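Give me the fold.
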Amino acid sequence: MSHAWPRPSFIAGLGLAGALLLTISGCGGKGPETDDSVVIPDPTVAAPTAAPADGGAAPAPAATTAASSTSPAPTENVKAEGWGTLKGVITFEGTPPAPKDLVEKGKAPKDPEYCAKDQPIKTERLIVDAGSKGVKNVLVYIPKPTAVNPEAKSGAATAEVVFDQSKCIFEPHVLAVMTGAKILLKNSDPVNHNVNSKLKNNGTNPNVPPSSELPFVTQGGEKTPGEVVCDIHSWMKAYWMVTDSPYFAVTDEKGNFEIKNVPAGTQKVVVWQEAVTGSGFVTAPSGQAVTIAANGTGTLDLKIDAGKVRPE
């Protein structure tokens, strides 16, 4: 039995298929490859988080250590020529503890006829200005600068710094000097004192008679600040930092500091405060990256969190 095929319909189908193929080839079919292609984002891939619109929820903050910074750290090291100034302010976040009396008025265990005779001797481990929340006696330094300004080095290395014992208190409480600088150990009191430095490379322990002074030339750089005590008056304590770099400062009563003639570019800045948990480092021990502009400034503003302060 033979079958009759509908030839006209079959040919028409082939014609229609061919026309469709030609149409596809002419509108987006595979053609020459170029670099002018447009990439459409995959909706299943998360896009980078954008800043929230007004009224929107802000992204969760990153975890903090001993301090939070209001100065963004550079994403990569910046190299530059010239010199600039590093400045900033260290403030306290939260409610600071009330200063403790180390010696009550009239109750000094040694030399009470002079020490704490008229007023108590208070701790200096954490001094916070009531108005500005600035923290006094915070050490700021650059241990490994990318370059050293000859003028800055000469000035720091030949400096003569006074370390006094007045009213049975060390003054200043935190002292920073460069290796080779002279520290004048002074006693302004009418009683005997001694200066027992426990620093690894700058140990010394001379007696300093009343109203006298003795020179001490620093011998080598230290990795961390070290204690200095008076064994005669047990409450007397201070800290020294001796660096191989001329770039250091100690904050004033408002928490401000400034270091001049710093090499331009990215520098690792270390911030230390004795009451902070761990070893006192507000930044990482290796420092926080700050970029200094040539003939300009770099700013490092930090906050010490109350939860990171060790109880006395």
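Confidence is low (pLDDT under 50) at residues 1-65.
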